[in-house]
């Protein structure tokens, strides 16, 4: 039998709190190729309003996951090497958690159901 840690921090290693939110995760995922991309394309791909995208991009820029610049008449954005490394680590950790959850589901499906004792009221 494989023992499972009861320490929640063991399951959180590698997870990035900012990337647990869908919009920042999706922004980084769209930019995974590390090339400059028009902000409008990211907005349309992620399907968020411009104001919501701007707020999330600001958070990602502060922690160094993305960089932005104005290129002629348009704003462009790209994922930084740090952002790529954190995204990769985060997705690896999430994948491990999902794999463990699936393993528990398949184990649970093999467990014989216990007989439920009758209620004390005789029901």
Describe this structure in words.
This protein is mainly alpha-helical and 123 residues long. Helices cover 53% and strands 11% of the residues. The chain has a three-stranded antiparallel beta sheet with strand order 1-3-2. The two termini are 37 Å apart.
Short account of what is shown:
The protein is mainly alpha-helical and 123 residues long. It is built from five helices and three strands, in the order ααβααββα. A three-stranded antiparallel β-sheet has the order 1-3-2.
The 3D shape can be described as elongated
Which structural class best describes the helix and strand composition?
mainly alpha
Low-confidence runs of at least 5 consecutive residues: none
Strand content: 5-15%
Tally of helical runs:
5
Question: What is the count of β-strands?
Answer: 3
Furnish the topology, listing elements before pairings.
Elements: H1 8-12, H2 22-30, E1 37-38, H3 39-46, H4 50-62, E2 66-71, E3 74-79, H5 81-110
Antiparallel strand pairs: 1-3, 2-3
Structure characteristics:
mainly alpha, elongated
């Amino acid at each position: 039998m494989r023992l499972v840690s009861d320490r929640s921090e063991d399951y959180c290693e590698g997870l990035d709190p900012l990337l647990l939110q869908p919009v920042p995760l999706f922004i980084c995922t769209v930019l995974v190729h590390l090339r400059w991309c028009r902000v409008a394309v990211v907005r349309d791909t992620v399907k968020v309003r411009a104001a919501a995208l701007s707020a999330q991009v600001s958070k990602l820029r502060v922690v160094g996951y993305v960089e932005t610049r104005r290129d002629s008449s348009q704003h462009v954005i790209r994922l930084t090497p740090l952002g790529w490394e954190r995204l990769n680590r985060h997705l690896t950790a999430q994948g491990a958690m999902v794999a463990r959850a699936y393993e528990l589901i398949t184990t649970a499906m093999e467990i014989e159901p216990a007989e439920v004792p009758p209620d004390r009221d005789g029901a």
